[in-house]
Structure formats: structure tokens, C-alpha cells
Design a protein that fits this description.
This protein is α/β, with parallel strands linked by helices. It contains three helices and five strands, in the order H-E-H-E-E-E-E-H. The protein is 30% helix and 42% strand. The relative contact order is 0.17.
């Protein structure tokens, strides 16, 4: 009897909770101007980074989830600032991405947040070299990772 009672108490002491699974529903690119306007690969990259960030935060992904995250990209730009003194040149490139995420639970919108991610690179040279405002892939990846982390943090997933 004691063994049965101990086993029963041990089983009752476990706190069983259902874990929520998440799915990245859609990532839409609504960037109107610039080289990333309508770029599908940018939306695909953001989806992959979002999945990575969700897993890093300890949440699970599932294909048939009732919790969906929908993301819309609104702005992408590279702001270039240059300072020149004689032959010394200092260039600062700031890559900026603005996105909005919406948490949808059982088909109903629950929360909508907006985030801005930036990445800055500074280069100095003793000769004047201009690359014509091109953006760095590393800066784009860093800015995308930052904006995805901010979106997930602001959504406050369970």
C-alpha cells in the first residue's frame, strides 16, 4: 500500500503543461524603394532567421501550430556618411531594416509590434575610395538578426 501511495504522490507532483508550438506564417516584403523592393530572397532570409531566433529563445516550431507569426518588412536602407580631410577618408555605413510582426492565435490577431534593426560599419582610408553606396552582406545579416530578435522579444511569446 505504501508503495502504491508513494507512486501515486510522485505522479501527482509532476506539473504537466502543454507546450505551445509556433509557425512563421508569412513574411511579406512591402519595401517600396531601393534595391530590396519586392526581393523575395530577403523575405526568405528573414523567415530563416526568425526560425533560428525562436529556437534560440527556447520555443518550439511546429507545422500545425495554432500560434502563427506573420512578419511584414517595411523599410530597408543604407545611410552613408563620409568625412574627408586632405587624404584621410572616414566612411560610416548604417544599414537599417524596419519590420512589423503579428502574433496570431487560433486565427485571431493577438498582438502587433514594430521593430527597427541597424548595423553600422566604419571604414577609414588614406586614399579616397568610393564604392557607390553598395551595401555589405554582413551588415544586412546583422541588421536582420537584430530586428528579428527585437520582434520576438516584443511579442513576449509564452
Amino acid at each position: 500500500m505504501r508503495l502504491f501511495l508513494c507512486a501515486f504522490l510522485a505522479l501527482c507532483s509532476f506539473n504537466i503543461t502543454a507546450q505551445d508550438y509556433y509557425t512563421i506564417a508569412d513574411v511579406t516584403n512591402e519595401i517600396a524603394l531601393g534595391p530590396m523592393a519586392g526581393n523575395r530572397s530577403l523575405a526568405f532570409g528573414v523567415k530563416n532567421i526568425l526560425e533560428e531566433v525562436i529556437q534560440e529563445k527556447g520555443y518550439d516550431l511546429g507545422p500545425n501550430s495554432t500560434h502563427k507569426i506573420q512578419v511584414t518588412l517595411y523599410y530597408f536602407d543604407v545611410k552613408k556618411t563620409s568625412m574627408q580631410f586632405a587624404v584621410f577618408n572616414r566612411t560610416e555605413d548604417e544599414t537599417e531594416i524596419v519590420a512589423q510582426a503579428q502574433l496570431i492565435v487560433n486565427g485571431k490577431p493577438k498582438k502587433k509590434v514594430t521593430a527597427r534593426g541597424t548595423a553600422t560599419s566604419v571604414s577609414t582610408a588614406t586614399l579616397i575610395i568610393d564604392e557607390g553606396g553598395k551595401f555589405s552582406q554582413a551588415d544586412v545579416s546583422t541588421a536582420m538578426k537584430k530586428v528579428c530578435e527585437q520582434l520576438i522579444k516584443k511579442l513576449k511569446l509564452k
